[in-house]
Amino acid sequence: MPRYLFTKQIEAAIIQGIRDCAADILAVSQNLVPVKTGKLKRSGKMRKIPKGAEIIYKREYAAAVEFGRRANNAEAVRRHWVRPHYRKFNHCRSIMKTRRVAGGLQRIGIQTHTISTMRTTGGTMSKTLKPIDIKRRMKNKVFVNGHYRGPFTRKIYAKMGKFYLTQAVDNIYPDVLEYIRRALNATPAYLPGGSP
Domain spans of the chain? Predict the structure, then answer.
């Protein structure tokens, strides 16, 4: 019966196989992670630990995106500093369609056309509509100085989890023994019988 000597090189090869598996799990999870600003995707890292590796997403909302969150009436937000930034200046406020109601004005949508000409032909009145380029009006940005915000409360809505890391682990981890076997085959110390 063949005998395998468990040496430091073999232990290192097993750990390397686990780390190769973790690297592939991270690559698959990077394809599955939802992207809005890209910060969550960029925060994903694989970190080496003494007996293997761990995959971490460092953004504070990573767990909420992964597992979802329950609805809550309100969440307290502490006083915090907002860095200087540019904000899009919304010119559409001046072209909002409104109607007068008992309590004041009520918005009913964005006006997309303006009436440029009105003429009558044969007793009927026709209007020529000119489109408003809303995208062009939204291009302008305003610089906002750094300032403090809060404390305040905000409403939290229920959200389903995306399970980007869980799906990656479920897809790749069953093959972890194959990763270890490949790493062992690449190690010269993995020889049957006595000492290498």
Answer: 1-72+158-196, 85-144
